[in-house]
Amino acid sequence: MSNAMTETTHYTVTKAATKAEQEAQLVDFVRQAVERAIESRGFATLVVSGGSTPKGLFQALSGTDLDWSKVYITLADERCVPETDDLSNAKLVKDNLCQSHAAVANFVPLFLEDESEEACRARFAEHPQLSETYDVVFLGMGGDAHTASIFPEAAERDMALDMTSSVNILKTDPVTVAPLRLTQTRPRLLDTHNLLLQLIGEDKWDVFSGVAEANTPDKPITQFIHQITIPLQVYFAEKK
């Protein structure tokens, strides 16, 4: 495994032997990024992803001594389910990240029941902090090389990846899995000071490295690797 930084392949890799070691690396990175942001502009923004991978990281971050009252947290994507549903990324964040020291953080959910895409975008616009360049964006990646809720089979895939689009939030149908999703789009997610991807296990690394080498545009994570807007910082743990 080697780091890469070329005109079209814009990523670096930080390796760890275990998930616990990886989480310690990420907590330290986020702590420093948040502290710098608060010092420079008075607040920090943190965009996180769902799934089982970041749960331990969220718990570790929640105990970090930061001025969380000045941190705005939102989601890269969300399933269109009630917040009480175990599939809800908002529930995951509230149960694991917005606890302990981080209980006072400002959490802005992506999905609200009976809210249209347009209303969601308008609600986000009410938080000027979320209209500026993000400080940290955490991505995940599925075995099919989807990231956020931008799926290979989705009819909305190309729209979500289009760098010329002014749309920041889009409803998507993954096709291969339920339910419907809301996702922040590629141009919005790339508008960040720090773009991180958390990967755990050789199976995920095999998917990532294969996609990175092949540069297959229909695999969504490819278009977060092969771009020169912001370096993708990959944190890889060999073991769970």
UniProtKB/TrEMBL annotation:
Give the protein name, as stated in the record. 6-phosphogluconolactonase
One GO BP: pentose-phosphate shunt
Q: What is its EC number?
A: 3.1.1.31
User: What SUPFAM superfamilies does this protein map onto?
Assistant: NagB/RpiA/CoA transferase-like
Give the pathway listed in the UniProt entry for this protein: Carbohydrate degradation; pentose phosphate pathway; D-ribulose 5-phosphate from D-glucose 6-phosphate (oxidative stage): step 2/3
Q: What does this protein do?
A: Hydrolysis of 6-phosphogluconolactone to 6-phosphogluconate.
What gene makes this protein?
pgl
UniProt record similarity statement: Belongs to the glucosamine/galactosamine-6-phosphate isomerase family. 6-phosphogluconolactonase subfamily.
Glucosamine/galactosamine-6-phosphate isomerase domain residues: 19-223
State the Gene Ontology terms under molecular function. Answer: 6-phosphogluconolactonase activity
- Which EC class, in a word? hydrolase
